[in-house]
Design a protein that fits this description.
The complex is a heterodimer of chains A (665) and B (233).
Chain A (H helix, E strand, L loop, with lengths): L1 H8 L2 H28 L15 H30 L5 H12 L2 H21 L4 E3 L6 E6 L4 E3 L6 H5 L6 E4 L2 E4 L18 E6 L1 H42 L19 H25 L13 H33 L8 H21 L9 H27 L7 H68 L6 H31 L8 E4 H11 L1 H7 L2 E5 L6 E4 L1 H18 L5 E9 L2 E9 L8 H5 L17 H11 L3 E7 L2 E8 L1
Parallel strand pairs in A: 1-3, 8-10
Antiparallel strand pairs in A: 2-3, 2-6, 4-5, 4-6, 7-9, 10-11, 11-13, 12-13
Chain B lengths: L4 E5 L3 H13 L3 E5 L2 H10 L4 E5 L7 H11 L4 E5 L4 H9 L4 E4 L4 H16 L4 H4 L4 E4 L2 E4 L4 E4 L2 E2 L4 H11 L8 H8 L8 H15 L9 E4 L3 E4 L3
Parallel strand pairs in B: 1-2, 1-3, 3-4, 4-5
Antiparallel strand pairs in B: 6-7, 7-8, 8-9, 10-11
Helix pairs in contact in B: 2-3, 8-9
Chain lengths: 665, 233
C-alpha cells in the first residue's frame, strides 16, 4: 500500500502534472488580482460590508470634505491678509501643508474652485453668509466669526446632527462627530480655534455609495474566494513537489538531473532576476492600465485586457522558471550540496585547500612517496628547515608591522607539529619494517639450520645403504667382468656422492653460522707446511711442483687450525686439479703491517672464461669437462671456512693466472 | 674358539642387513635388533661380544641404550651415526661407547674397527696390568722400549728406527703437543732447520701403519699450525 502510494506520488508524470497545475493556479491567481485592480473595485469592500464603515472609501471622503470646507474659510482669510497686510505668512504655509497632506492634484483643483465661485457670488450674496457649492455630496457650514460659508443658508446645528452616522462638528476647538466618523483620520491641526464647522453627508449620497459598494462586493467576494483557493492549492502543490522532488518510485536515493549541476549562485541569481523581472513587468503593465479605486467599471478596456493577457503570460513564464529553479535548489539542499555547489565556495575551498595541501604534502610524506623512507625523512627535514628559514625571514619583515609578529610563531608551531607528527609516523614504519625483516631473517636462519640437520640425516641414511650394498656386491664371486666394472663405477660414484654430501653440509653449516669454531693461537707458516706435507702424495701424483716462499719467523694468528687446514687443502687441491701440466704452483706467505697474507698462485690449464665472483658461486666448476672428481664446492668451502675462522678470502683472475689471497689480522 | 657374536642395532633394516652380510662374510655371527629395547632384550638372550649401535632410533635411542648396557656390561660398543659433528662424537664416546663411526661409512673401515675392538676385548683384556715401566700404552697402541716391539690392538707393526723414536717421544708424553722442530731435535739429534715437511712425511707414514683410517686418525694427530701429539685414551 505504502509502496503503491509511493510509486504514484513519485512518478514523474504525477510530478509534472502537479508542477503544471501549480503554475496554472498561481498564474490564475495573479491574473484575477490584476483583474480586480483594473476593474476599479475597492478591495476593502471584500471585508467591510457597509460603505459608511469603510476606511479607505468613506473616511477618506470625509477627510476630503473637511479640508474642502475648511479651505473656504482659510482662503478667505488669505484674501484679508493680502488686503490688511496684518497677518503672518504662517497661514499660507499651513494651507500648503494641508494641500501636501491630501492628494495634491485634487486639492489644487478644489482650492481654485471656491475663488471662482466667490467671485461670482460676491455680487449676489450679502456679506457675512456666503452660499457656495450647492451641488456638493455633503452639506456644510463654516464660520470664523467674520466670514461664513454654507451651501444652504438656513442650516442649523441640528440639521447636521440628525445625520447621526456622518456628522462632524468643530466648534472653536471642540470636536464632536457621528458614529461612523473616525476623527483620527482627519487632520485637525489645520483648523484654527475660532472656526466653527459643521459637516454631514446626505443620505442620498450615502445610499448611492452603498449600492456601488455592494455591487463591488458582489463581484469581488467570489473572486477573492477563488483567488484564495488557487493560492492554497498552489501552496499544497508546491509543498508536495518540495517533498517528492529528487525521489524516484523504485528507491530512496536522491536523484539529480542536469539542472542541478548549475552553480548555486547562478540559480539564486536567476531566481531573483526572474522575480524582479516579473514584478517590473506586472508593475509597468499595472500602472499603464490602472484605474483609481472606488470608480468601478463594468467592462475592461481593450488596453486592460491586453495588459491582463500579458500579465498572465509573464506570470506563467516567471512561475515556470522560478519553479524549476526552486525545485533544483530544494534538491541541492536535500543532497547537502547547496553550499558545495557554490562557485565562490569551490573557488575559495580550492585556493585554501590547494595551498594547505601543498604545504602539508611536504610534511606528510606524499611529496616524497617515491623515495625510500629514510630519504623522505631527509627531504622532509629539508622542507622543515627551508620553511623555518622563510619564517625567520618573514619575522624580520613583520617587525616593521608589530601586530603581524604573531603569525610567524603560530606558523612555526604548525610546521613543527606537522614535522614531528609525520616524522614519528615514518619512524614507526621504519621500526616496523626493521623488526619484521629481523624476525624474518631469524626465522629463515632457524629453518636453514633445521633443514641442514634433517636433510643431512635423510641423505646420509640411504647413502649408507648404497655404499654398503655396493661393497657387498663387489665381493660376490660369480660376477661377470662387465658387472664388476659396473659395480666399480657405482662404488666410485657413491663415494663421490658421499664427499659431496659431506661438503654440502659443511658449507651449509658454515654459511648459516651453525658451526663450532675453536680459536687458538697458531703459526700460519707451520700450518701451510703441514698441509703441504700432508698432501705430498697428491702433489707428487699431479706432476706439478710447488714453490714456497715462506718467512723464516713464525706468523702467528688467532684462528681455527682444523678449518684452515681444510681451506689450504681445498685451495691446493684445486690448484693441483686445474693447473697446466708442468707449471708451478706458488705458495707465498708474508707478514705485512701486522697482517698475514697467504697467496696461492697457479697457471690454469684452460681458458678461464668466468669472473672471480662466478668461481665462488656454489657448484661452479672451473672446467666441467676436465674432471669428475670433487664436489665443486672446494673453493666455496674454503671461502666460507676462512670467513668463519676470522680471515678474508679473495680470488683474483689475471689472464691464465689464478690467484687466491687469504688475509688474517 | 667360538665365533664372536655381534649385535647390530639399526632401525633401517637394509643397513642392518648389509652390516649383517658384511660381518657374516668376515666370519662373525650376527644378531639384529631394530631399536634400543629390542637390543636390550637381545643382549639378555644371546651371548654378545660387540654391539654396533645406531643413534637415532624409535622407542629407545642409541645413547640411552649405551647407558643402559653400561650399567651391566663391559662389552665394546661402536656407535654408528649420521651425526658427524665433533660434539656428537664426544657425547657418544663419553656416554660409554668405545668408537664412533659416522654414516655413510666405508664398509672396510667398519670391519677394521670391529676387528680392532674385538681383539682388544677378547684377547688383550688384561695385558695392561702385566706391563712394566718399559711398556708405553694408549688405547690399542703398545710400545715396548726394551724389545723395541710395537703393537696395534695386539698385532705387531713394523716401524723404522726413526718412526719408533718419534712414537716413543710422543707416547711417553701422551696428549702433549710437540712442534716439528722439537721432534726433529729430539729424534734426529740435529739442529732443526726447515724440518716441517720431513717430520710431516714421517707422521703420515706412521699413521698409515697404525691408524685404521689415516685420513681420520685416532691416535697420531696433527694440531694444525702448532704441532703433533698422540691422544691419551
Amino acid at each position: 500500500m505504502d509502496t503503491k502510494l509511493k510509486s504514484i506520488s513519485r512518478h514523474s508524470l504525477t510530478k509534472l502534472l502537479a508542477f503544471i497545475l501549480a503554475v496554472v493556479f498561481i498564474t490564475a491567481a495573479v491574473v484575477q488580482g490584476a483583474y480586480v485592480l483594473f476593474m476599479g473595485y475597492n478591495p476593502e469592500s471584500i471585508i467591510v460590508s457597509e460603505y459608511k464603515s469603510s476606511r479607505t472609501a468613506f473616511k477618506y471622503e470625509m477627510n476630503n470634505a473637511f479640508h474642502e470646507t475648511l479651505g473656504l474659510i482659510q482662503w478667505q482669510g488669505d484674501e484679508d491678509v493680502e488686503v490688511n497686510t496684518s497677518a503672518t505668512p504662517f497661514k499660507d504655509s499651513v494651507a500648503n501643508q494641508v494641500g501636501d497632506g491630501v492628494l495634491e492634484e485634487e486639492t489644487e483643483v478644489e482650492a481654485q474652485e471656491p475663488s471662482e465661485v466667490i467671485a461670482e457670488e460676491e455680487v449676489n450674496v450679502p456679506q457675512g453668509i456666503q452660499i457656495v457649492n450647492e451641488d456638493k455630496d455633503y452639506i456644510f457650514y463654516v464660520s470664523d466669526g467674520v466670514n461664513t460659508f454654507t451651501n444652504k443658508e438656513s442650516y442649523t446645528r441640528e440639521d447636521f446632527a440628525k445625520h447621526e452616522d456622518t456628522f462632524l462638528a468643530f466648534e472653536k476647538g471642540n470636536v464632536s462627530y457621528g458614529k461612523k466618523v473616525d476623527p483620527s483620520i482627519i487632520s485637525w491641526y489645520s483648523a484654527e480655534d475660532d472656526v466653527t464647522l459643521y459637516l454631514a453627508f446626505t443620505d442620498d449620497f450615502m445610499n448611492e455609495q452603498q449600492k456601488g459598494w455592494e455591487a463591488g462586493r458582489d463581484v469581488l467576494v467570489p473572486m477573492v474566494k477563488l483567488f484564495v483557493a488557487f493560492i492554497i492549492l498552489a501552496i499544497i502543490l508546491i509543498i508536495y513537489l518540495t517533498i517528492v522532488t529528487g525521489r524516484l518510485p523504485y528507491d530512496d536515493e536522491l536523484h539529480f538531473n542536469w539542472v542541478d549541476k548549475i552553480w548555486t549562485e547562478f540559480m539564486v541569481g536567476a531566481f531573483i532576476l526572474t522575480i524582479i523581472g516579473w514584478f517590473y513587468g506586472v508593475y509597468t503593465l499595472g500602472v499603464y492600465s490602472f484605474r483609481s479605486l472606488n470608480t468601478p467599471i463594468n467592462n475592461l478596456t481593450s488596453t486592460q485586457s491586453n495588459a491582463i493577457y500579458l500579465i498572465g503570460v509573464i506570470t506563467a513564464v516567471a512561475v515556470l522558471l522560478c519553479g524549476v529553479i526552486y525545485l533544483a535548489l530544494i534538491r541541492k539542499i536535500k543532497g547537502k550540496r547547496f553550499i558545495k555547489d557554490c562557485l565562490t565556495y569551490k573557488f575559495f575551498y580550492r585556493i585554501f585547500h590547494g595551498v594547505l595541501d601543498f604545504l602539508k604534502s611536504f610534511f606528510d610524506g606524499r611529496r616524497f612517496e617515491k623515495f625510500p623512507l629514510t630519504k623522505s625523512l631527509h627531504k622532509r627535514q629539508i622542507a622543515f628547515i627551508v620553511a623555518s628559514f622563510i619564517l625567520v625571514f618573514l619575522t624580520f619583515i613583520f617587525i616593521a608591522v608589530p601586530p603581524l609578529m604573531i603569525f610567524p610563531p603560530i606558523l612555526e608551531i604548525v610546521i613543527i607539529l606537522w614535522y614531528v607528527k609525520y616524522n614519528n609516523k615514518t619512524y614507526e614504519e621504519i621500526n616496523k619494517g626493521f623488526d619484521e625483516s629481523l624476525e624474518e631473517q631469524m626465522k629463515s636462519e632457524r629453518m636453514k639450520i633445521n633443514l641442514v640437520t634433517n636433510v643431512s640425516h635423510d641423505l646420509k641414511t640411504p647413502l649408507t645403504s648404497i655404499i654398503s650394498y655396493v661393497d657387498l656386491l663387489s665381493k660376490e664371486d660369480d660376477l661377470s667382468e662387465t658387472a664388476r666394472d659396473y659395480v666399480n663405477i657405482l662404488r666410485e660414484k657413491s663415494n663421490r656422492l658421499k664427499n659431496i654430501v659431506a661438503d654440502l653440509f659443511d658449507l651449509a653449516k658454515s654459511t648459516s653460522g651453525d658451526i663450532n669454531v675453536d680459536f687458538e693461537d697458531l703459526d700460519l707458516k707451520k700450518l701451510i707446511e703441514q698441509t703441504l706435507g700432508d698432501m705430498e702424495d697428491d702433489i707428487e701424483k699431479s706432476g706439478l711442483t710447488i714453490k714456497t716462499n715462506l718467512p723464516n719467523e713464525p706468523v702467528m694468528i688467532k684462528s681455527d687450525g682444523k678449518k684452515l687446514y681444510r681451506v689450504f687443502q681445498n685451495i691446493i687441491d684445486n690448484a693441483l686439479k686445474y693447473s697446466l701440466k708442468g707449471t708451478r704452483i706458488f705458495v707465498e706467505l708474508e707478514d705485512k703491517d701486522g697482517k698475514a697474507i697467504a697467496t696461492v698462485k697457479n697457471t690454469a690449464g684452460y681458458e678461464m672464461d668466468f669472473t672471480a665472483e662466478e668461481i665462488l658461486q656454489r657448484f661452479n666448476r672451473g672446467d666441467e669437462s676436465r674432471t669428475t672428481e670433487g664436489s665443486g664446492l672446494g673453493l666455496s668451502i674454503a671461502e666460507s671456512f676462512t670467513e668463519v675462522s676470522g680471515g678474508s678470502f679473495k680470488v683474483d683472475i689475471d689472464g691464465d693466472m689464478f690467484k687466491v689471497i687469504i688475509e688474517f689480522q | 674358539m667360538d665365533k664372536a657374536r655381534i649385535l647390530v642395532v639399526d632401525d633401517d633394516k637394509e643397513i642392518a642387513n648389509a652390516i649383517d652380510k658384511l660381518l657374516t662374510m668376515e666370519g662373525y655371527e650376527v644378531v639384529k635388533a631394530y631399536n634400543g629395547l629390542e637390543a636390550l632384550d637381545a643382549l639378555v638372550v644371546n651371548n654378545i661380544q660387540l654391539i654396533l649401535l645406531d643413534v637415532m632410533m624409535p622407542k629407545l635411542d642409541g645413547l640411552s641404550t649405551t647407558m643402559k648396557i653400561r650399567e651391566k656390561k663391559n662389552i665394546p660398543i661402536i656407535i654408528l651415526s649420521a651425526k658427524s659433528e665433533d660434539s656428537d662424537k664426544i657425547l657418544g664416546l663419553s656416554m660409554g661407547a668405545d668408537d664412533y663411526v659416522t654414516k655413510p661409512f666405508n664398509p672396510q673401515e667398519l670391519v677394521a674397527r670391529v676387528k680392532s675392538q674385538l681383539r682388544r676385548y677378547m684377547y688383550l683384556g688384561d695385558m695392561g696390568n702385566a706391563s712394566t715401566s718399559s711398556l708405553l700404552q694408549t688405547g690399542g697402541l703398545c710400545l715396548n722400549r726394551e724389545s723395541k716391539e710395537f703393537t696395534v690392538d695386539g698385532e705387531g707393526v713394523r716401524l723404522t728406527p726413526t718412526e719408533f723414536k718419534m712414537m716413543e717421544l710422543l707416547m711417553s708424553n701422551l696428549g702433549m703437543v710437540f712442534s716439528a722442530e722439537q721432534i726433529y731435535e729430539k729424534v734426529w739429534e740435529e739442529e732443526a732447520y726447515s724440518v716441517e715437511n720431513t717430520v710431516m712425511v714421517h707422521i703420515r707414514r706412521i699413521r698409515e701403519k697404525i691408524e685404521i683410517n689415516p685420513k681420520e686418525p685416532k691416535y697420531l694427530k696433527v694440531v694444525w699450525g702448532i704441532g703433533y701429539k698422540i691422544e691419551k685414551y
